[in-house]
Write a sequence for this structure.
């Protein structure tokens, strides 16, 4: 999956550990961070990356509007 994303220019924001317990928790419809506490930092980091992307996108959109307004 990682190679495909790189080839397609898609950013990988997080990777789940290759761990049978992760698959079992997911298959049971469980909340992963409640079953496997060691995964919590991974999801916290993912949330920060998403927030950073949203902030950057918002700034870019606002800068684009400002530049367009001055033309």
């Amino acid at each position: 999956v990682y190679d495909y994303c790189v080839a397609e220019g898609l950013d990988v924001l997080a990777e789940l550990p290759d761990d049978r317990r992760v698959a079992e928790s997911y298959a049971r419809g469980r909340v992963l961070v409640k079953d496997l506490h060691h995964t919590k930092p991974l999801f916290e980091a993912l949330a920060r990356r998403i927030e950073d992307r949203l902030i950057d996108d918002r700034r870019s959109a606002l800068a684009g509007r400002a530049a367009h307004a001055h033309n």
